[in-house]
Recover the amino acids of this structure.
């Protein structure tokens, strides 16, 4: 019986998954000097949620998250990192999942595995906004970018998950993370400052920012290419690999 | 049948738990200028492991980890933080759990829930070494401190979990974490340097360390108390609350 139910629900990730474990992804993009994330809107419900999914019985967790994101949004090969595990019992709200299932034509009994309690492993992803082509899955009307400061109400604790992902991004701001992903490989100091401002949600003085960034020793400045007006072009920078603010400078 | 089995196995955390989800804790202490962690040795097996456990059906994840640590080691009210989720399918090695169960007098069938695949949510804890009284649980011969550089072989991927916890500790070294936990509330610059050296696994030049730490703006220096030889006593420092290296200094 339980097996039959899971097979019937294959459209919502069906049979053959680990129980009680889900994942959700906060996908960050940077455009128009503001930070954005991806949200799914479920058919006929007005419910918005982060893209997520479940882990197959014979699948590594990290691989499952990549697969889930590809299936639900169309996004491939992106920078993904674990962020936090949301495991409060209060996040168990079977009525929400029931609403989504019903709106998609599925009536399931109370003991259905999708109505059970789930611990969600949250990931955050950084993508180059302009490289991404979005494709919503069968469950969703849309998969769209939303400005981080203008999100609609989200299901369950997804607003908390977004907040935690933002905090993690802020905390990791000075290390490797921002470099290769939200910006092109080389960038100007101004572009870097805009990313910092969008992530931190505050303005930073240009001189303060520049002194601080150069002081961290994590940036490499590149030669300007010679041309008639090269002296007017701003310097381009890139991140040194795996350079942290402290550990390599002692000893 | 499944219910009966879980009840029988109550000594190993029994019936009433979320399936497929475990947790493991890396508990750090600092003593004799070196970093140590807690390990359990299972009865009659020679197997060493991190203290861990499972989440009850009606229990928050973070509360479960606190409870598990208390039950298995006797440690109460400590600083605990999530570290990483270990979810590779390769970590499913039922023979190891079977060995531990058998050594404790439990013969379980193949479909027993404890022999299923588990995703483990790793936590790290920081404790004041001198405050801790260790009490091993019924499954274990001992619960003992081991120097991080001299660990015995550990079961499953527990060595990887330790490595990840060390990396996380290193990455968080300059923020709030070290302050309130591995050291007393006030400390000398030398004590702080010893903690850094133990965590990073390398020596740091005294002048480099002092300049760097003061430059981060996260330390508060306290007045020396007056006495006849007060001028020979080193300055005492404490951490400013939630002060990060960058986010509060811009704008």
């Amino acid at each position: 019986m339980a097996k039959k139910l899971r097979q019937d629900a294959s459209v919502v990730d069906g049979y053959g998954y680990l129980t009680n474990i889900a994942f959700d992804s906060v996908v960050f993009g940077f455009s128009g000097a503001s930070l954005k994330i991806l949200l799914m809107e479920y058919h006929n419900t007005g419910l918005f949620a982060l893209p997520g999914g479940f882990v197959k019985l014979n699948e590594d967790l990290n691989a499952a998250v990549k697969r889930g994101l590809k299936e639900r949004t169309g996004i491939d090969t992106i920078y993904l990192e674990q962020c936090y595990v949301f495991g409060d019992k209060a996040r168990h709200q079977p009525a929400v999942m029931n609403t989504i299932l019903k709106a998609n034509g599925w009536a399931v009994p109370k003991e259905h595995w999708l109505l059970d309690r789930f611990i969600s492993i949250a990931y955050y992803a950084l993508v180059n906004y302009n490289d991404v082509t979005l494709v919503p899955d069968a469950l969703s009307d849309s998969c769209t970018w939303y400005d981080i400061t203008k999100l609609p109400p989200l299901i369950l604790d997804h607003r908390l998950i977004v907040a935690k992902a933002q905090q993690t991004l802020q905390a990791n701001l000075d290390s490797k993370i921002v470099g290769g992903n939200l910006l092109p490989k080389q960038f100007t100091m101004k572009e870097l400052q805009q990313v910092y401002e969008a992530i931190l949600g505050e303005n930073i003085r240009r001189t303060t920012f520049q002194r601080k960034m150069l002081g961290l020793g994590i940036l490499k400045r590149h030669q300007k290419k010679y041309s008639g007006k090269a002296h007017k072009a701003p310097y381009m920078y890139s991140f040194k690999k795996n350079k942290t603010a402290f550990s390599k400078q002692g000893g």
Summary: Chain B touches chain A through 44 residues (CB under 8 Å).
